[in-house]
Amino acid sequence: MNIPNLNIVKKSLAILLILFTLYSCKNHSAVDYCNAGEKKMHEKSDVGDDALNKAKYKVAVLDFDTAINLDNKYVKAYALRALAKSALGDHDGAMADAEKITSLHPDSASSYIFVANIRQNDFKDFEGAIKAYDQAIKLQSDIPSIYALRGHAEKQTKDYAAAIKDYDHAISICPTGNSLMPYLYSGRGQVKVDMNDKSGACLDFSKAVSLGYTGAQQLIDDNCK
């Protein structure tokens, strides 16, 4: 069960999209097309109808294409197009857009976090994701979620010592009361489960519950009896 890690990923992607809006686009038509595409991505459709879901992403991609044709440095349009392509199964296209963002802003930690997310989620390329997170941390070393995401990737490669070290550091620099904190404990607990450290895992899951993450109770039920 990787619920804590999914929450961290979702929070990270949401933050990245907000950060990418800071790279302003002066072409108002490009902004309009990008906003239209984003709206289409979020339109509700029958969850069971795969064709409808794919159709909305295909139309959204066309809007992002137009936005990028109008402004080929429009970071948010590349990011949203990457996510739409990912949803359509065009993983190579998603990666190309993600890497375009790093070429536009090579000194931005956010760019490398985005690349890492695509590598990890689309390709299961955890080693590649770790390298991207390494680069992000070199550029900005004070973001707890980057260490947690790298820790999750390290868990997948069975480098448990490195994963624990990253989660420990994420917890140490995460501000008290931050909503990310319970997920950090849950994530570290899952690493400890893989290490057969049952008592340590259960302490972390209990801490996560005490900090308000009720979903960690299922982790306790599954691992701590």
From TrEMBL:
Output the SUPFAM superfamilies linked to this UniProt entry: TPR-like
Q: Which domain of life is it from?
A: Bacteria
Known SMART domains for this protein? Answer: TPR
Question: Which spans of this chain does UniProt mark as TPR repeats?
Answer: 144-177
The family database entries (InterPro entries) matched by this protein are listed as: TPR-like_helical_dom_sf (IPR011990), TPR_rpt (IPR019734), Ycf3 (IPR050498)
Gene3D superfamilies referenced in this protein's UniProt entry, alphabetically: Tetratricopeptide repeat domain
Q: Which UniProt keywords apply?
A: Repeat, Signal, TPR repeat
Signal peptide span: 1-29
Name the chain's protein.
Answer: Tetratricopeptide repeat protein
